[in-house]
Amino acid sequence: MKNYRSIRTFDELIDLEHGKIGTESRNTYEENAQMFIVSEMLKAARKEANLTQEQLAERAGTKKSYISKLENGKANIQLSTLFRIFEKGLNKRIGLTFL
User: Fold this and answer.
1) Where is the HTH cro/C1-type domain (predicted)?
2) Where do the H-state alpha helices sit in 5-93?
3) d(Cα 25, Cα 16) in Å, to the nearest integer?
4) d(CA 57, CA 64)
5) CATH code at 10-89
6) pLDDT per residue over 6-51, tens digit each?
7) Across 83-99, average pLDDT
8) Half-sphere exposure of residue 6, counting CA atoms within 13 Å on the CB side?
9) Which of the listed residues 2, 12, 69, 79 has the most CB atoms within 10 Å of its CB?
């Protein structure tokens, strides 16, 4: 059983639940967290643009099923496809930050 009594920060909780940065477990957690963020951003932007998944797919040159998978965090996405969906499909620009 894990000891949560000494936990004081969110980072400490993540370390306890998923391991330290650089471990396989933590890397998997971080990848899944990033995919969740992208999927939620995509879903919110599509809804803000008042588009259906089918309309977005048509604008971006992809399939509705792919947009659905992305929004549900069930598909990986290439950077070029991400740019195309946001820029052509949603008329939004993407900025990347590397830490």
Assistant:
1) 42-85
2) 10-18, 24-48, 53-60, 64-71, 79-84
3) 11
4) 5
5) 1.10.260.40
6) 999 999 999 999 999 999 999 999 999 999 999 999 999 999 999 9
7) 91
8) 5
9) 69
